[in-house]
Amino acid sequence: MEGCRLTPAQGRIAQSMLRRPAEVPFLSSVALAGLAGVSQPSVTRFAVALGFDGYPALRRHLREVATAGPGPGVAEANAYQKLVQAEIDNLRGLTTALADPASVVRAGRLLAASDPLPVLGLRAAAAQAGDFACIARTVHPDIRLLDEGGTALTDRIDAAVRAGASALLCFATPGHPREVVDALAYARGAGLTIVTVTDSSSAPVAPHTDLLLPAPGTAHRLGTVCAPVLLGRVLLQATCHALPGGRAGPA
Q1: In a designed cystine with 171, which of 7, 125, 235, 239 is the match (CB 3.0 to 4.6 A)?
Q2: What domains appear along the chain, each with residue ranges and CATH number?
Q3: How far apart are CA 227 and CA 92, in angstroms?
Q4: Residues 204-234 pLDDT 10s
């Protein structure tokens, strides 16, 4: 898929395939479409974009690759190598998705225009939100990190709205608490435009999000998050471009 210019829908298909390489060769086009949150014709167009006659031809190729196994003299990767390789695949999927930067550019404009800018991330996602907030404070006049739940969370959202906030950035990891969904619904009801970085376009936060940016994570109990963190940096770059003066990035 490297070097191919894919549409946003095709980028989501690519991400879904990279997240589940062992399953994909045995999925129907309808099943893959459901996994990626796109239409079945989008899967067919994706296969054609990669140079195949259609999805059946792509699936045959994937099955041949899957059953071939490692070549002569190639050692089977150990568990640690597989974990790293899975994350590399996630980053490749993110690279493919960013071939069309329209969503990121739009997100950057929304975030740059919000003063203050609340950044939400609870539990595991607090680290991602904190990483973004720490660097964003060097270029944005008022970043408000929301990394603690409880009754104070809605109070802080209200305070941001009263201070002039127009958007909220959320980082939502797989298995996030229900409180994240409730907080987004509350913030949206208060008039904020919600931008969310999460692992899938079908995540529970999607219905409460105005602009969703998928960044795949690795299906591992440690929950590796290189792609979401890197997408946060990409968003920060887009925000810098949209700020008055169009800064290239954090100093």
Answers
A1: 125
A2: 8-97 (1.10.10), 102-242 (3.40.50.10490)
A3: 9
A4: 899 999 999 988 765 555 556 788 889 999 9
Q: What CA–CA distance (Å, rounded) separates 68 from 94?
A: 27
Rounded to an integer, what distance in angstroms lies between the CA atom of residue 102 and that of residue 121?
24
Which two tokens mark 105?
């550019």
| 27-41, 85-99, 159-173: range with highest mean pLDDT | 159-173
User: Three-class SS string for 98-138?
Assistant: CCCCHHHHHHHHHHHHCCCEEEECCCCHHHHHHHHHHHHCC
> 222-251 as b/e, with b when 16 or more CB fall inside 10 Å?
eebbbbbbbbbebbbbbbbbbbeeeeeebe
Cα angle vertex 94, ends 92, 95, to 5°?
65
Task: Tell the residue number behind the tokens 């990483």, with chain if given.
Answer: 131
